[in-house]
Amino acid sequence: MGGVVCAKMVSMSSKAQFVRSDRVTHALDADAAWQQLVRRDAAAEFFYGVTTTGVFCRPGCSSRLPLRRNVRFFRTVAEAQAAEFRACRRCKPDAAWGRPLDLVRGYLEAHADRRVSLDELGRVAGLSPFTVQRLFKQAMGVSPLQYQRALRAGGLRRALKQGGRVTDAIYAAGFGSSSRAHEGAALGMPLARFAAGGRGERICFTTARTPFGWMVVGATARGLCWLALAATKQEAEASLREEFPAAEMKRDVGLGKWVEAAVRAVTAARGAKDELPLDLRGTAFQLRVWQALRAIPRGETRSYSELAREMGMPKSTRAVARACAMNRVAVVVPCHRVVGAGGSLTGYRWGVERKRKLLEAEGSS
Fold this sequence. Notes:
By secondary structure, the protein is an alpha/beta fold. Among the domains are: 24-87, DNA Methylphosphotriester Repair Domain (3-Layer(aba) Sandwich), CATH 3.40.10; 98-190, Arc Repressor Mutant, subunit A (Orthogonal Bundle); 284-364, Winged helix-like DNA-binding domain superfamily/Winged helix DNA-binding domain (Arc Repressor Mutant, subunit A, Orthogonal Bundle), CATH 1.10.10.10. The chain contains 16 helices and ten strands. It has helices spanning 21-24, 30-38, 77-82, 98-110, 118-125, 129-140, 144-161, 166-172, 178-184, 192-195, 233-243, 256-267, 284-294, 304-310, 317-325, 352-364, and strands at residues 47-50, 55-57, 71-74, 86-87, 202-210, 213-219, 224-230, 248-251, 302-303, 338-339. It has a four-stranded mixed beta sheet with strand order 3-1-2-4. A four-stranded mixed beta sheet has the order 7-6-5-8, with helices on both faces. Helix 7 (144-161) packs antiparallel against helix 8 (166-172).
């Protein structure tokens, strides 16, 4: 199978603890921390509590900016809790897995003009390079290197739109050469294959009947790249071939385990979770939206504007909606959990009635 991981399940730990002793021994500069809070710097390495609410948050939280006189700063979650502050339900500062991810993502975005090594990211997050790679891939569906390439590709597109010289735009975006830019400019990863309908890509797939219609899953050597729902088996398989018309397709019944895992993501008891390896291809912004979708708890929904605010980008509601619409992996990346401002089900790529059934299944689990 040329290394395709088709029927292999990947187990993952849901949380990662980390402690950086060198980050808790020195005093926190309250004035500098306040300036980072005002900027909503998601990579800032502290927490803040609001005395009028008794809640503590991450600096990148989308909640309203408090008055300076009502703010206290803490280096760790334990410090905030010892001061009798409770964790914010919106940014979940006590979720141990989220903190290193925020640090790594923020660091990559701040240093998009150069290649950042896993060793460097490990020092930023207080984790081993291997753990950084694993956690980031679990949450984002791409490696840190692929995410940084997506950031550079976005910078290149913005520079070209401004009418500058191509060569200047390439180097300004952080690409070391024009050949590197052409390799990654489509969407920041080795995505020329996907842009060309999957030419040169091998995709294993299978279909199965589920409570939500026929489901088709497709997987590359890197992980799940397509999951769609349809009324018939033929329609389900056709959706995969329409998305990747030039790819080599091979049926693999072993992927039935992935179908079962996807269904359990909706129907199993809350807290139970199967982790599937993902091969998500998109811009850096799309990857962030898809990761935010995966962070919505089962049984809960968000409006597009709420999701944008939680991401710290309240003016990007339409862009968030477009990224949701571009999601290639139904159910596992749960765009069905995003609804209209008034709770209406709005549009859904795989049918509004299926969206209703998915939400009903999650609400009753």
